[in-house]
Design a protein that fits this description.
heterotrimer; A mainly alpha; B mainly alpha; C mainly alpha; A: rod-shaped; C: about 75% helix
Chain lengths: ~35, ~325, ~160
């Protein structure tokens, strides 16, 4: 696989992982943010 | 400023900074234990434990330049007679593992602080996770430190011929270097660079909006809502720290004697301090939509934004301003 | 092609490309990176919010970020032009460069449509229709692609 495609694929993979992690954390915040001071 | 980069200064800087992940980490860990064992609700949730987490996070952050100055010190003294290259390699490898675990502990501590600001309580799971990761990293730091001591002081080793003996637990820096630079791995560096840019835009975007709010702009947004985005900044930082460390470990020579890289780290530390401030700032929860902010917040926001641009500037200008590559 | 060669040989192009001062190519590149930071950074925040992240953030007050994005775009158009002038022949004949330009050209009207979709109607900007979400996601991915192709251009 050419260099360019590898860069694109791996990076989109990283973006997907970051997005999934971020959304999980955000939904947890949605659920548990019942109290604010 | 470049004339400050001397072998003596680089070694000295490492010896100075390495007290943070050893002595400092011990103190932070002790604070955490006290906060766990304490009977007082206040100690657990208002004072001691958030403080312990904050100190832990700060130590995780400052250990980044501890690691980088370590490689710089290696470059500075590797030709000195009587210094064991094997000991230095063993130290570097065990330190790398200890560093990785410490960074994970720092991330865990940060999430504890983030939850604490949002709900006045630190989830027990995060406390336990932070405790376990800190304990492991403290153990690993101790091992790394004692191997490191053997580099110049074989007299502290029970058996001086073991200077250079490896710890059971280590990540090989050579393996990282091979992954990045090895034959057939041409795709790695450009991929990591692209990831580095993406991570940068992510943490900058989130912290830009948060600091603009600190400065009194985007006033229609209540700050607590922006606070919820902070983990994304950490994720961006995370991608950049991992990719950055890979660049550094694979080709330290371009960075260790480049004064621009030291400036980048300094501004990075300021950026991390801003993240900590944004996370735990007490006024944050009272800054609703329309609430103006005080001068202190505006100054902090402005200083933070300048630091972010400075980090990018130093990073981008590294090959041009410095003497690298 | 001769125009490109003439451009390449011009004093201005030569200055950007070869001048020993930090104010030539390095500065142009750094300002271009700064624009990217502003543009894509803002885009992540807006697009994430439109996709439903951080639902307590009101969408209305995010509108100035669109102005910021356009401001950053103009910075990058200008610096991008300078970067092109510094190396016109190779850029103009590069597939990679063409792809990057294509991604941007597709994304710009999407950005306009996105702003209009969110803020243009009388509907409460807090409600984000599904089509707008897809637009936001697509736009974000186009920016990512723009970053990748741009970075790869640096290796040309």
């Amino acid at each position: 696989m050419s260099l360019g495609w590898t860069v694109v694929l791996v990076n989109f993979g990283i973006i997907v992982v970051v997005y999934v992690l971020g959304r999980l954390i955000d939904s947890a915040a949605e659920r548990y943010d019942s109290r604010k001071d | 400023m470049a004339e400050l980069i001397t072998p003596g200064n680089l070694s000295h800087l490492h010896l100075l900074l390495n007290h943070f992940p050893t002595v400092g980490l011990t103190v932070a860990f002790a604070l955490l234990i006290v906060s766990i064992l304490s009977d007082s609700e206040a100690m657990r949730h208002d004072t001691m434990r958030p403080t312990a987490l904050g100190v832990l996070f700060a130590i995780a952050v400052i250990t980044l330049p501890v690691f980088t100055t370590g490689l710089a010190a290696e470059g500075a003294i590797e030709k000195v007679p009587g210094v064991s290259k094997a000991a230095m390699d063993a130290h570097e490898n065990s330190a790398l593992l200890a560093f990785v675990v410490l960074e994970l502990a720092g991330v865990s501590a940060w999430f504890g602080l983030w939850r604490w600001r949002r709900t006045r309580r630190i989830p027990p799971g995060l406390t336990i996770l932070t405790f376990v990761l800190s304990a492991i990293s403290l153990g690993l730091m101790t091992v790394a430190a004692s191997i490191g001591g053997g580099i110049r002081h074989p007299e502290i080793l029970a058996d001086p011929s073991t200077a250079g003996a490896q710890s059971m637990f280590e990540i090989s820096a050579a393996a990282v270097a091979f992954f990045v630079n090895g034959r057939g791995h041409q795709w790695v560096w450009p991929t990591l660079e692209s990831a580095h840019f993406v991570g940068m835009t992510l943490w900058f975007g989130v912290l830009l909006v948060a600091n603009l709010r600190l400065m009194g702009w985007l006033r229609g947004i209540p700050y607590p809502a922006l606070h919820r985005l902070l983990p994304w900044a950490l994720l961006g930082f995370g991608v950049n720290e991992v990719s950055g460390m890979m660049f550094y470990i694979a080709t330290p020579k371009g960075y260790t004697t480049n004064v621009v890289f030291y400036w980048k780290l300094i501004f990075l530390l300021i950026a991390a301090a801003d993240l900590l401030y944004l996370t735990v700032w007490p006024q944050a929860w009272k800054t609703e939509a329309g609430t103006p902010t005080h001068v202190r917040e505006r100054l902090i926001g402005a200083a933070a934004l300048v630091s972010f641009v400075a980090v990018m500037y130093c990073g981008r200008m590294l090959p041009f301003l410095g003497n690298s590559f | 092609m001769e125009y490109l060669t003439a451009l390449h040989d011009s004093a201005f192009s030569t200055w950007i490309r070869e001048a020993e001062t930090v104010w030539a190519f390095p500065t142009v590149l750094t300002v271009h990176t700064f624009g990217m930071m502003l543009l894509v950074g803002s885009a992540w925040v807006v697009d994430l919010r439109l996709l439903g992240v951080g639902r307590t953030i009101p969408i209305g007050p995010l509108r100035p970020l669109f102005r910021l994005m356009w401001f950053a775009f103009w910075i990058n158009l200008a610096t991008g032009l300078l970067l092109f002038i510094a190396d016109p022949e190779r850029k103009a004949t590069s597939l990679l460069f063409g792809v990057k330009m294509l991604l941007i050209i597709i994304n710009l009207p999407m950005l306009t449509r996105l702003e209009r979709a969110v803020y243009g109607g009388t509907a409460d900007p807090a409600v984000v229709p599904g089509g707008t979400k897809r637009l936001a996601a697509a736009s974000a991915m186009l920016w990512a692609g723009t970053i990748f192709t741009g970075r790869l251009l640096g290796y040309m």
